[in-house]
UniProtKB/TrEMBL annotation:
It comes from the Bacteria. It comes from Microbacter margulisiae. Residues 31-117 form the Cyclic nucleotide-binding domain. Gene3D superfamilies: Jelly Rolls. This is CRP-like cAMP-binding protein. The lineage of its organism: Bacteria, Pseudomonadati, Bacteroidota, Bacteroidia, Bacteroidales.
Amino acid sequence: MAETFEQYILRVMPGITKEQTGLLLSKCIVRKLHKKEILLKEGDISHYKIFVMKGLLRNYNIAENGNEIIVRFTDEGEWTTDPESYFSGLPSKYNIDATEPTEVVLIHQEDLLTLKQQIPPFALFMVKMMTDNANLIQKRVLMSISGSAEEKYLDFIQTYPSIFKRVPLHMIASYLGLSRETLTRVRQGLANK
């Protein structure tokens, strides 16, 4: 499975040398997760950047009423963490778990800082990744504030077609900030068009 991550590195970090790739790989921890296995628990501190090689993760919070509030899905070839906890050292407000059997690469925060200093292509990639994530978050916030239930649902299907097919309806509803009943009505309305 480390070969998958190595191929990814070579694809997204042009100019990285064989030695730099070896150094980066030496700092990686590969972990296999079972469905529903928690990688980060609310109250713990997020010390790792997480890359999904296979499977799907979700970042979520449990509200006081017991409802799950999903803030993010992380599919294969994507990175995640709890950024607030990761950068501040404060306890996480979120859980990260596997929605299906998942394989991840973990890079500890201290190692990541060292790697960014020693591997310029990696440092450039991290800046690009953070910029891309900020743009996705901004798009999601705008859709959440201004989109109708139907627009949110259609945007989710278009943005995350593979995730849409792999998670139950209640998780999609949670991610969109809708009740399951509202999402069911939206889906039925679209089917009748």
